[in-house]
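=== Given protein ===
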Amino acid sequence: MIKRVEHVGLMVSDMDESIKFYETLLDFKVRVISHNGDKELTFLTHKGLPGFEIELIRDLRQGAHYSEHGLVNHLAFIVEDTDKTISYCKQLGIIFETSEPKRGINDRKTIRFGGPNGEMLQLVEER
């Protein structure tokens, strides 16, 4: 069912400093920068890691709670069929954050749920 890890979301306090760190030290490159009102998002790619990205996340509002799950906010998995995987997970008792998937960057379906240790996991439909 799971095909690969797609990205890791990291909470940052200074987006510019974080981008510089990953570009300079680890040779990542910015793919896209986005603002959605509550968060600033930057996706970084690496030529040696095709299909994997680092998502840098910075809360833009005081009191935003996106970072409450820790510095590493979530682990995202690419799935072949989002609806089928959601149905399977629900049969196993998984409770999702939302009743329906959201549309993320590139209009792909995404949905999140908690793991057994409080970690946040995300399903992302294949591009």
In short: Residues 75 and 121 are 5 Å apart (CA to CA).
